[in-house]
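A quick aside before the break. I want you to see a complete sequence-to-structure record at least once, exactly as it would be stored in a machine-readable document. Don't worry about memorizing anything.
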Amino acid sequence: MFEYHGTMNDAPKSPDGLAGPMKAMSPGVVDFLFRQLVAGEPPEDTQWRREGTVLAEQAPGAELARRLSETDLDSLTPLELFEYVRASQRLVTWAEHLKERAVAQYCAEQPTRTRGLA
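That is the input. The structure line, written in tokens, reads:
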């Protein structure tokens, strides 16, 4: 009896499901992209641009940290995920600058602090 084992064109299946770029696309993202395609709309969500500051334009600081921490990564499109990573990098750079300023301030005042303890 003949058993079907697929064709040479079948994509290899990983044991954990999809791999590569498709792994980053949740069912919600795929559904969104399909609806955008059918409606003839761009593949990015334009509604969130009308609701306030987009992540790409959000100034680094507490508000950006809050927004990043509250974001559901599984619901982001690939473009939005890219912007999320860029915003995270801006926040890290900002935090590093704060740390460097604090260390410089601490080191500048170090002789005064040790004299007060003696």
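Two observations worth writing down. Residues 60 and 91 are 5 Å apart (CA to CA). The helical segments are 27-39, 47-50, 62-69, 78-117. We'll return to this after the break.
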